[in-house]
Amino acid sequence: MQAKQTRVGEGRFPVDRVIFTQSSVGQLGGIDSVNGVLARQFQARGVQIAYVSGNPPAGRPEIDGDVFVCRPLLSWTADHPLAAQYPGRMGIRLLIKRLLTPVIRIVHRARVGLFLQRLGPGDVVLLSSPGVVDALRLGPQAATKAYLVAHGHTSFEGYRLYGWLESQRRQMQFLDHLVVLTREDARRLSEALDVEVGCVANPSDVVPVPGVVREKTVVSVSRLSSEKRIDTAIRAFDLAADEVPGWRFQIYGDGVERDALEELARGCRNADRIEFCGRTDDAAAVFSGAELAILTSEFEGQPMSVIEAARCGTPTVSVGSVPEVARIAKRCGYLVDSERPEDVAATLVRAMRDEAGRHERGRLAIEFGKEHDPSSIVDQWMELFETRDPSSVTLAHPDGTLTAPAGA
C-alpha cells in the first residue's frame, strides 16, 4: 500500500512553519508535554508555530501560536460524546442537536477544506492524534502542498488494542509519512501497514532542580484515565506501605477517573499516606524531590513520565506492559513482570529498601535521559522535514526506519 505521496529525492524542502495537532490543544498529558518541548526548539530555530485542535481547546498552548479548530460547533451537534447523556427536558435539546448536526458537519467540512488549501510547501503538519487526522480528512480532498506527518505516540499494542491499525491504514492515503517512537514499533507497524515507518524518540527538556532534598516518596505523574491503571498503583502502594514505614505516595494529574481513585484511596489502610496533588507544570521539582516514580499503564509508546524522572535521576518501578517500557526498566529502573497489585507491591518494597540500588539506578537513569536531549531530537525532525524521507532519520536510531516488505 502506498502513502499519499513520498516526494523523496526532490532535494531540500523549506520549513517555515510547524503546525502541531491534538484532539484538544492545551489538554494535560504526555503529548502536550512533548509538543511543548518541540515547539520551543523549533521556535528557537526561527520556525513559526501554529496548532490544529480537533475539538475546542482545553487551554492555551505553552508556546503561543495561531490555533485552528476543526469542529468549533461540536457542542451544538449530536456528534458530541456527551450529547446523549444530556438530552434536555423531554429530549428536546438532543432533538435540536440532531437536526443541526448535518448542517454543522457541512460547515466544518468547508472550514477544514479552506484550511488545507491555504497551507504552503513550507508548512509541516505534525499530527499526533488519530482523531484529528480523521477530522482533516473530512475536508474536500483538494491537494494540499503541506507535508503531513502522523506522529504515533502509542505502542503497536495500543494500535491493536484500540483498533487503530485499520484506521491508520486508511489515513495513510491522506498522509505523507508515519513516525513512531521506537524501533520495535516501527518494525511491527511497517509490516502491518506495508508502508515505510520512521522512528524518532520523544524529547525532554526537564533537568533536575538543584538543592532539592529527596524524600521517601513514590510519585506518579499521569493523566487519571483507565488505561493508566492508577488503581493498581494505589493498591500496590497500600500493600507495600504495610511493610515499609515512612513512605508516601503522591499522585499528580487529573482526569475522568479522579473521583473513583480518590474513593479507592480513602478505603485503603494507609489512606493517610496517599495524596492527590492535582495537575503540575513542574515535573522537574516533583521528580527531583522523590526517591521513586511508578508506572502501571496498560500500554505506552515511550512514557514521558519515565523519561522525565530519569533526567532527574529518579528510577521508576514499571509494569513491563510493552517492550519499550521493559527495556527502560531493565536499564535504569525496577521491572515488574505482572500487573497484579501484589507483584507490583513486592517490587515496590524491594526498591524502597534498596537505598544503594536506588542511587545506582538513579545514576544510570541520568545517562539514559541524556539520549532524549531535545536539541538532538529536533535535529532529526528537521532532517525529516527538509528531506521528506524517513530513512534520513539516523541520529538516535541509526537503523530506526523500516521499509515495506519487498513486493508489497
Quick one: biggest sheet?
Answer: 7 strands, parallel
Class by SSE composition: alpha/beta
> What is the total number of structural domains?
2
CATH superfamily of the largest domain: Glycogen Phosphorylase B
In short:
The chain is of the alpha/beta class. The chain has two domains: about 15-205 and about 375-390, Glycogen Phosphorylase B (Rossmann fold, 3-Layer(aba) Sandwich); about 215-370, Glycogen Phosphorylase B (Rossmann fold, 3-Layer(aba) Sandwich). It has helices spanning about 30-45, 90-120, 130-135, 155-160, 165-170, 185-195, 230-245, 260-265, 285-290, 305-310, 325-330, 340-355, 355-370, 375-385, and strands at about 15-20, 50-55, 65-70, 125, 145-150, 175-180, 195-200, 215-220, 250, 275-280, 290-295, 315-320, 335.
Strand-helix topology:
Elements: E1 17-22, H1 30-44, E2 48-53, E3 66-69, H2 92-118, E4 123-127, H3 130-137, E5 147-151, H4 156-161, H5 164-171, E6 177-180, H6 183-193, E7 197-199, E8 215-221, H7 230-243, E9 248-252, H8 258-266, E10 274-278, H9 283-288, E11 290-295, H10 304-311, E12 316-319, H11 323-332, E13 334-336, H12 341-353, H13 355-369, H14 374-387
Parallel strand pairs: 1-2, 1-4, 2-3, 4-5, 5-6, 6-7, 8-9, 8-11, 9-10, 11-12, 12-13
Helix pairs in contact: 3-5, 7-12, 10-13
InterPro entries: Glyco_trans_1 (IPR001296)
Organism: Tessaracoccus palaemonis
GO molecular function: glycosyltransferase activity
